Every structure is written in structure tokens, then in C-alpha cells.
Amino acid sequence: MKYNMLKKTAILFGSGSALLFLYRFSPLYDYITLAYVQEQSSYFKGFVEQHYGLTVAIYMLVFIVSIAFSVPSSIILTLLGGYLFGTLAGALYATGSVAIGVASAYSVFRLFLQDTLRKTYKERAQRFEKLMNEEGASYLLMLNFSAVFPYFIINALAAIARVPIVTVIWTTVVGFLPQGIVYAYAGKGLSSIEKVQDILSREIIFVFILLILLACIPIVIKRYKKQIEL
């Protein structure tokens, strides 16, 4: 049993490492950058006009793979989606891609690495599982709203805590959609963006902070009720 688990882990790690290696030394690594996307924006726009469905499929496939393997490109790809497809469609395609990518990565963790991760990070796993049992989906939603923790970490923790995949998906969608709308809207002016940080005005940062606080409300209420009962 232990040998089979080690074998599965080795195969998965080897496959993931190979894919990441291919990505790092492939042209794709240089393509998912703000400078390249801006440089090729006119070509991409023309391709959309001629092959809309194919462009959406390619766009979502690249996005899904990048999320599944924790490639830091979600903001740039969402900007591109907004530029190519408009704010609403771009945000929806990006959100759908993130959800599928997260679900794929979570499934791999849950099926192949759950026991290994629980043994390796026993104390942390127990703390997170306790938090999930006490706070429920609100805690996972707060992590998604914060946009601080990579999906790789959230997926691993969710798999360790045996969070239902439906909960993982809906918290991902709700957590990413506001960001997706903001970045897709900003993508309409893609050519004028000098750096990603330019998008984050004080108003937008305030909205993101407000969303995090809203996700914390159920957690605060639960803890307050527990203190009253004590």
C-alpha cells in the first residue's frame, strides 16, 4: 500500500515537473507577459473576429493549464480576456477557466497526494481542518477574496481538510469573479497599461478589502455566539 502511494506520488511529481520544465523553456513562458500581450493585441483581436469560438477555446485552455500548475498569469490573462471579449464575457471566461483549473488541481491532490500531505503537514493539516469545520466555507471564501494565497496552497489545504469539491468550486467562483470583472474591465484599455499595479486604484483596493471583511462576518458571528454560550 505504502509502495503504491510512493509510486503514484513519484509519477505525479515527475509529470508535473516535466510539464513545468517544458513550460519554462517553451515560447509560452515568454508569451504570457504584459509586454507581449500588448505587442500582439492587434493580431489577437483580428483572430477573434475571424475565429471567435476557437479563440475562446484556446484562451480558456491556456488559462486552465496555468491555474492547474500555479503559473502566475491569471491577472494578465484576465486583462487579455477583457480586451478580446469585452468586460462581461472576458470575466466569465476567466472565472470559468479558474474554476476548472482549481477543480482539476484539487482532484489531483485529493486522489493522489491527500494522505502524503496529511502525514507531511500533520499539525498544519489538523489546524486547517479544525478551522474549516468551525468556520465552514466562509474561511475558504476569505482566502479566495484575499488573492494573497496561491491556488496551489488553497487546493492543497482544501484536499487535506477533505472539503467537498462543490464547496471548493463555488468559493473559487465567488472569490474570483469580482477580481475578474475589475481586470477584464481594465483590459479594455490594454494598450495604455504600463504595469499591472496601475489598475489597483484606492477605490478598487477598498472594494477588495470590503469583500474580505464581508466574508469574515459569518466567522465573527459564529465566534461571538460561542463566547455568549460560554
Written overview of the protein:
The protein has 230 residues and is mainly alpha-helical. It has one domain. 83% of the residues lie in helices and 0% in strands. The protein is built from twelve helices and no strands. The chain has helices spanning 2-24, 27-31, 34-39, 41-50, 52-68, 74-85, 87-120, 122-135, 137-146, 151-160, 165-186, 202-229. Helix 6 (74-85) crosses helix 11 (165-186).
Topology:
Layout: H1 2-24, H2 27-31, H3 34-39, H4 41-50, H5 52-68, H6 74-85, H7 87-120, H8 122-135, H9 137-146, H10 151-160, H11 165-186, H12 202-229
Helix pairs in contact: 4-5, 4-6, 5-7, 6-7, 6-11, 7-8, 7-10, 7-11, 9-11, 9-12
Keywords:
single chain; 230 residues; mainly alpha
Brief rundown of the structure:
The protein has 230 residues and is mainly α. It has twelve helices and no strands.
Write the element-wise H/E pattern from the N-terminal end onward: HHHHHHHHHHHH
Summarize the amount of helix as a percent range. Answer: over 70%
C-alpha geometry: globular
Decide which structural class fits the backbone. Answer: mainly alpha
Unreliably modeled segments = 5-26
Radius of gyration: 19 Å
How many runs of DSSP E, i.e. beta strands? 0
Please work out how many helical segments DSSP would assign: 12
